Amino acid sequence: MAKGNRVQVILECTEKPGSSRYVTTKNRRTQTDRLELKKYNPVLRKHTVHKEIK
């Protein structure tokens, strides 16, 4: 059975690692590089850049 194109990824805060993590999905075929989104960090109480981790 073939794997689907969507894969689950974990996003972690870059300003204070370990303080905030999000789980999302991305399309493996169209987005080959690491995902980078601005998400809310409740510990810092502001929006920060979250990058994909292994």
Can you put this structure into words, describing what you see?
By secondary structure, the protein is mainly beta. It has a single domain (6-53), classed as Rubrerythrin, domain 2 (Single Sheet), CATH 2.20.28.120. The chain contains no helices and four strands. The two termini are 24 Å apart. The model has no long low-confidence stretch (mean pLDDT 94).
Strand order of the largest sheet: 2-1-4-3
CATH topology: Rubrerythrin, domain 2
Structural shape:
elongated
Could you give me the name of the CATH homologous superfamily?
Ribosomal protein L33
The second-level CATH architecture is: Single Sheet
- Tally the helices: 0
Largest sheet: 4 strands, antiparallel
Taking pLDDT < 50 over at least 5 consecutive residues as the criterion, the unreliable ranges are: none
Count of beta strands: 4
Secondary-structure element pattern, one letter each: EEEE
What is the residue-averaged pLDDT? 94
CATH class: Mainly Beta
Could you tell me how far the N terminus lies from the C terminus, measured between alpha carbons in angstroms? 24 Å
Helix content: under 10%
How many domains make up the 3D coordinates? 1
Q: From the alpha carbons, calculate the radius of gyration and give it in angstroms.
A: 13 Å
Give the class from helix and strand content and strand pairing.
mainly beta
- Kindly estimate the percentage of residues that lie in beta strands according to DSSP: over 45%
